[in-house]
Amino acid sequence: MIRPLLRQGHHLLTRARINTVAYLPPDLDERPRRRGRPRIYGAKVRLRDLIAERGLFQAAPSPIPGESHTTIQYCCFDLLWRPVGHDVRFMVVKHPHRGVIILMTTDLDLDPLDAIVLYSYRFTIETGFRHAIHVLGSYAYHFWMEAMDPIRRRSGDQYLHMKSEEYRRGVRRKVQAYHAHVQIGCIAQGLLIHLAVNHGEQVWKQFRSWLRTMDPTRPPSELVVAYSLREALPEFLEEGAREDALRKTLATYSASDQPAAVRRAG
Questions:
Q1: Is residue 127 part of a domain?
Q2: Helix H or strand E segment including 120
Q3: Which of these, 8, 36, 90, 91, could form a disulfide with 103 (CB 3.0-4.6 Å)?
């Protein structure tokens, strides 16, 4: 994954496993040159062993937003990582409440504190993905192509170059439908976030449900905005309904949502 990113001019910042092993550059002057390929890797460094070395760490205020009064400890090393074959920057971070993590980046010029801030955005991104999946269904697409040949599970890829142009056009149309579905979901999620940030008070007024962690003093989530829009949609349509057919349809569905006893009383 890292090599294609580097070929395109990008870098990777991720969390490394606690048992990650890296290497120091080889010390070529320690003994006479032998025949064969020169050494590439030097002494092995187990990053887990660095956690107990107190003299390597330096303290700094936490750069994560909302943690200005928290002090963290970190140390940074540029070591050779065998899966990539060149230097990678490792950062061991000790947080007083979150524990110890090891970060890894291919950008050797990235400041450790900036790397910590960038990695903290991961949780916000993961929350956004969760809402996109469970609230909006942005990635719950399943488009069928009637003309596509049936494929068995684990049968491998299709050889589209052996198919007709009409068949390939249908596959491209299907892939385009995937992309359009995801893009429309992203636009819808952006509109929900806009309403949550800029019209949060009105959203909470329309929210007619209950949440265990509900706090009306803070901006609502995409879930709360979606529920509020769902509750306000019939009223919005009734106000703008000018055609008799639309008003009749709205009256039918609004009556079907009520309990049977209420409908008989009406």
A1: no
A2: helix 112-131
A3: 91
Two structure tokens written together for 195: 């309403």
- Do residue 102 and residue 211 come from a single domain? no
CA distance 76 to 86: 16
Give domain status of residue 210, yes or no: yes
Given 63, 92, 122, the domain boundary residue is 122
Tokens of 44: 């092995």
Cβ burial of 196 (10 Å; 0-12, 13-18, 19+) is: buried
Verify that 117 and 177 share a domain, yes or no.
no
> Which of 122, 151, 178 is the last residue before a domain boundary?
122
Same-domain check for residues 171 and 224: yes
Residues 49 and 106 in one domain: yes
Report if residue 150 sits inside a domain. no
Domain coverage including residue 12: 2-28+37-122
Q: Can you give the pLDDT of all 266 residues of the chain as single tens digits?
A: 888 888 888 899 999 998 999 998 887 665 666 677 777 788 888 988 888 887 889 999 999 888 878 999 999 999 998 888 888 999 999 999 889 999 999 999 999 999 999 999 888 888 889 999 999 999 888 888 877 777 777 777 777 888 888 888 888 898 899 999 999 999 999 999 999 999 999 999 888 888 888 888 889 999 999 999 888 877 777 776 667 777 777 777 665 454 443 334 33
Which residues does 196 contact at the CB level (< 8 Å), separation at least 6? Answer: 203, 219, 220, 221, 222, 224, 225
Q: What is d(CA 116, CA 60) in angstroms, rounded to the nearest whole number?
A: 12
Domain-embedded: residue 178: yes
Please give the Cα distance from 124 to 64 (Å, whole number). 12
CA–CA distance, 21 with 10 (Å, rounded to integer): 23
